[in-house]
Design goal:
Blueprint: E1 6-9, H1 15-25, H2 34-43, E2 49-53, E3 56-66, H3 77-81, E4 96-104, H4 117-131, E5 136-142, H5 146-153, H6 158-161, H7 174-181, E6 185-190, E7 203-209
Parallel strand pairs: 4-5
Antiparallel strand pairs: 1-2, 2-3, 3-4, 5-7, 6-7
Length: 210
């Protein structure tokens, strides 16, 4: 872990700083309003973590527990999370931790380069999965390089795009690459997963078995 980086559960007085991270980390159509974070804190505080570096919040992740069948994974992020509210979608008896959000501010990515903040937050969600005795950690990954790829190199089907690999064997897409590097695998392409122009509204369900 980065020297001086602390991953801890959130407190109610952290919410204003969390909103700064949310606004810096995501395109406007993908940002969650403060009331959704307040609801996530109320419903499942154990799955709400922040990354603190030099006394400043630089990353945020939230989660819920869901029923999960690996042979028939769920579809859109909107459906799985109740559009990010989680009050009706969180099921303590489920067997999977579902990562609702994970965002890192530019201060957690100096000079545009990742320094491990996102990885540390994801590892904490994986640790939570084990602590709770759940079988899986799952999430809906964006494919934020898809639209720009198609505009510069020609339109290709999403099924082809998610399987494009670099010379090191990792995905061409920056977010799929991040999650595969962390040990998750792609299990399902999900159209209309959320309002996300960069991903052309696609998402990819990803899974890690505890």
């Amino acid at each position: 872990m980065i020297y001086g980086l602390e991953i801890r559960n959130v407190k109610s007085n952290d919410l204003d700083a969390i909103m700064r991270v949310e606004n810096e980390a995501w395109p406007i159509e993908a940002r969650a309003p403060k009331e959704k974070f307040e609801e996530r804190l109320k419903v499942f505080p154990n799955g709400f973590f922040i990354a603190v570096l030099n006394d400043e919040i630089v990353g945020v992740t939230t989660s819920q527990i869901i029923k999960y069948n690996p042979k028939n994974p769920p579809n859109s992020w909107t459906e799985i999370t109740g559009d990010g509210h989680i009050s009706e979608s969180h099921n303590p008896n489920g067997k999977a931790v579902y990562v609702v959000s994970l965002g890192v501010s530019p201060k957690g990515r100096p000079e545009g380069k990742g320094i491990g903040v996102g990885t540390a937050l994801l590892e904490r969600q994986k640790q939570l999965t084990k602590e709770l005795g759940k079988e899986y950690l799952v999430l809906s990954a964006r494919v934020p390089s898809y639209d720009s790829f198609c505009k510069t190199r020609g339109n290709i089907p999403i099924e082809v795009y998610v399987n494009l690999r670099r010379n090191d064997g990792l995905p061409e897409d920056i977010e799929l690459r991040f999650y595969e590097r962390a040990g998750l695998k792609q299990v399902k392409i999900c159209p209309n997963t959320m309002d996300d122009a960069e991903s052309r509204n696609y998402g990819v369900m990803m899974e890690w078995k505890a």
